[in-house]
Design brief:
By secondary structure, the protein is α+β, with helices and mostly antiparallel strands. It contains 2 helices and 7 strands; from the N terminus they run E-H-E-E-H-E-E-E-E. The chain has one domain: Ubiquitin-like (UB roll).
């Protein structure tokens, strides 16, 4: 199974690319994908519960099922702007 994972903001900077493809044999949840990403890139560990997930452009939680060809987007908290 191939899953496309889009990374935004600080996650993109840490990993060094805007998209990674993960390959797994079994059914996945968002949590499984996040665990796999953390294993490959341990420096993203600190984001914990502050992430926002979307599967195929729909908000998702960690228990949302992922199917072949799905696109998972992961958004860390973003701050900034003008005062």
């Amino acid at each position: 199974m191939k899953i496309k994972v889009l990374l935004f903001a600080r996650l993109r900077e840490i990993v060094g690319c805007e998209m990674v493809e993960l390959y797994r044999n079994e059914m996945l949840t968002v949590r499984d994908v996040w665990d796999t990403l953390r294993a490959q890139f341990p420096q993203v560990e600190g984001f914990g519960k502050s992430l926002l997930f979307c599967v195929n452009q729909e908000f998702a939680d960690l228990d949302t099922r992922i199917k072949e060809g799905d696109e998972l987007a992961i958004f860390p908290p973003v701050s900034g702007g003008e005062d």
